[in-house]
């Protein structure tokens, strides 16, 4: 870790994600946006590059990952650690209690929101057939496209069964999302960010997921509607978009 | 190419030494007897085959029909010997005995002959277990073979190989054309996993292929279609980013054609004859993601010199031309270096590289000049000593990427600059008809920055099993 912190953040740091127009799915887009928001909040420049094989390039198999100098780091958690080692952190001002709280809410978002996104994408037959499988397989030719899409679907469904979500219905998942948003909305209250005036990695994570959900068209608009029901979360997303992403012309 | 397995033949070619290689042609009877026998007219009345079980008779008619055209006794013996060879090469008989006798029965002519082939069929199912050692790796190979599956010399083979670096299995079905054994069709289904530490790359191929072989004059042609699902990944966390960028899945659907002329008397230790093999592969026009045209050739000439020594010269080259603007995949490019091409350099460790990982190149050439002589003072002559040879060699080669926009002049120039070469001497041991073991002292030259040499630049000993 000592070697890593010695090098400053380079100009050519790059973030890799799947192809924006045709390939990327809701869950990956949300995770990628969360990391992008975090890096912008830290003031660290990063270039976003889209590759069809980003998922396979990633050392952990998860999107997004960043290429900084000689290092390759994937997923928000490890990236936060990585930037901390380089001397950039958003949560230094927090005390131990607040830090524990932040970790707990981040766990909530990962266990609820991210899992719900994966469930809707791959376990709902309509969404899987109309959106997820065609998008996931778009860079490949027949019959490889079908093989990879079904392989991914089986893998996600197996994981859902393992964590006990296998038997859930879409309605139950929407309810879970509502409850999660309820908890987040309550914690946020009327503050600009979750921990008063300064954003932390929790803000980046919540923004990434909520913003992506409300701006992505799925087979059903139900999920977006549930989130739009919480006005303070909506204005939270808008605030972060305007503060950190005002130079971006499109949202996803 | 990175995907071929040097050590495992997937085409069902039998590597055992055939007893016929050692067999002598029929004895020459002395002149006076020969005159009598040659002048005596004979007629072959019956040609029989005995001992058939599952083999279909229509298959064998073609192989033995020529015996009927014999005019005299010497002719009968010669043609029967040739027919026996033809029956054995089908790979369906363990043994073939020839019996020539005078005709018997009511329609027997005074100068009539009956020729009988007594055959012993091979077993329906054979299993095998082999250990193979190739370029720096070892593997255990289990095989199941069903020769003469449906009675017309078809062969169904299943092979499973578990090795230090790779695991693979394959199913293969071989069908020759009755009467034209050299024209045959092979269908393959396989899964192959390989690890390539020189590139920090691992590759899993799942594929199928259909291959048609046929002779045309002195040449032998192979037409093949292959569909492969390739998965590339980093071998270690420390792989270079250039290799990481190649990770993922791709589908290659390719048509290829190979023409070869081989007049050598042995594949491992030829002392005369030449080999010319030209191969081309076109991918992308029958589906798949990969799209390229690949050409490569091999030329080898051998000549016996004074004192039982052999001079051998060889030249290889190839070019990969990506089609449609996409860049080539690391799995399709050429690699150079090591005991099979340029000795003194690490295995496939010449040419374009990134952070120590060799990425291969789109064009290459390699050449070698070898002189094999018997051991000095010929120890163990006539016996064990004959398996050894002293070996003097000169290897050279180059591997690079070309800018296809430039003309052929620029390409030749690029291939001619930064040539790597090496020279040295050593001892070679011949292991049956299958392999050779070399122990060399080698001096690598023309080393470019990025290349990896085995041992020190000043020269080193190395041993290779090829």
From TrEMBL, chain A:
Residues 32-152 form the Mitochondrial outer membrane transport complex Sam37/metaxin N-terminal domain. Keywords: Membrane, Mitochondrion, Mitochondrion outer membrane, Protein transport, Transport. GO terms for biological process: mitochondrion organization; protein transport. Residues 178-240 form the Metaxin glutathione S-transferase domain. The keyword GTP-binding does not apply. CDD domains: GST_C_Metaxin2 (cd03211), GST_N_Metaxin2 (cd03079). It is found in: Mitochondrion outer membrane. GO terms for cellular component: SAM complex. InterPro entries: Glutathione-S-Trfase_C_sf, Glutathione_S-Trfase, Metaxin_GST, Mito_Protein_Transport_Metaxin, Sam37/metaxin_N. Gene3D superfamilies: 1.20.1050.10, Glutaredoxin. Its main location: mitochondrion. SUPFAM superfamilies: GST C-terminal domain-like. Belongs to the metaxin family. This is Metaxin 2.
TrEMBL record, chain B:
PROSITE patterns: POTRA (PS51779). It holds the Pfam family Omp85. Residues 42-122 form the POTRA domain. Residues 1-24 are annotated as: Disordered. GO terms for cellular component: mitochondrial outer membrane. It comes from the Eukaryota. It is a multi-pass membrane protein. Residues 11-21 have a biased composition (Basic and acidic residues). It is found in: Mitochondrion outer membrane. Transmembrane segments: none annotated. One of its GO terms (biological process) is protein insertion into mitochondrial outer membrane. Keywords: Membrane, Mitochondrion, Mitochondrion outer membrane, Transmembrane, Transmembrane beta strand. Belongs to the SAM50/omp85 family. PANTHER family: SORTING AND ASSEMBLY MACHINERY COMPONENT 50 HOMOLOG (PTHR12815:SF18), SORTING AND ASSEMBLY MACHINERY SAMM50 PROTEIN FAMILY MEMBER (PTHR12815). This is POTRA domain-containing protein. It comes from Gouania willdenowi (Blunt-snouted clingfish). The lineage of its organism: Eukaryota, Metazoa, Chordata, Craniata, Vertebrata.
